[in-house]
Design a protein that fits this description.
- It is a single chain.
- This protein is of the alpha+beta class.
- It has a domain of about 190 residues: DD-peptidase/beta-lactamase superfamily (Beta-lactamase, 3-Layer(aba) Sandwich), CATH 3.40.710.10.
- The two termini are about 30 Å apart.
Length: about 375
Amino acid sequence: MANTVTSTPNAVIIERLDSLFSERYSPSDKAAPGGAIIISSGDNPIYEAYFGVADMNSRVPIGPETTFNIASVSKQFTVVGLLQLAAKGLVDINAPLSEWFGKEYPQQFWHTVTPAHIASQSSGIPDSRDRSNREACIFATDQSSEVYFPKIESLRFKPGTTYDYVNPTFILLSKIIERISGKEFTVYQQENIFDRAGMNDSYYFSPDRTPLNQSHAYRPDSNSPDGWSKYDYGEETFFATRPDGGIYSTARDIVRWETALRNGLILPKEWLDEAYRPHTDVSSSQWCDYQRRPYTSYALGWFVEEKPGQPVKVFHTGDNGGYQTYVAKYPSCDLSVIVLENRHDRPRREMAEKIEQILLEEKLLK
């Protein structure tokens, strides 16, 4: 374990968090995949620690420079790119998708779905991609993942009426960004999000390159000599699609992202407030029972938990192969929690609840 604290928080908090994460990443697993954790109050880290190795072959330890695939946490970056254009009056997020895709997708229902419906996971557009060819799924791209759109015959429900978590629809948002900005999606995102936020170590995945500090993800494997097998691109389906799950980043870059959002460097406050406003109830969804979290809604690219007696939590999780991500913030307290992992064999929700309990008991959450 590598532990760094750049402010002077209560030693009890450090001890309790160390105990929690040392249990999660056992000291006996020093040569196993692990995680990067930063908990911050405003711009001040309360706790920063790194466990395990980034690559099982090289045994390079996870550290501040290690990049992880943040999976579905990538969605908020796509939404923010769109909202930047909306803040400039260039996009109406409540306009029908037919405004941009009328010729490509002539079905009448495209006149009823809006970018806001996609961003709030209430579009009704089904994820009916062909999964019969596993190799095609494993090596899917943005382009191959959108070919099913013209074939859709109907929506699952009336847009805006309920929640269904869908990934490929975020490709449509990226295409709107491209058409309005005149720039390729990742170029726009680099210039207007990563560069503005100072996220110098963040990037969109490309199968053609492996940056120096990019980690690999793993899953337990009793048949492997070291007990692990690689489980990311090349082993898992739909890994490379960018707008819904393609960003690689470091824990420190995610801190920079949170700081930039909080300080208005990325979006005007009124648009950030709109992004954090609950739009779609998650807990009652009949379409997505595995995500029926109590007290939870989906905003625009973020989940929002409004648990009685506790501060509102704005968060997102991410899962892609062996990568597991948890990024949460409590806007009323200016507190953020970032956990990036390259293993997927430990329960995340239980971890999140234990972190929250420590922060509540130590009076950091109020």
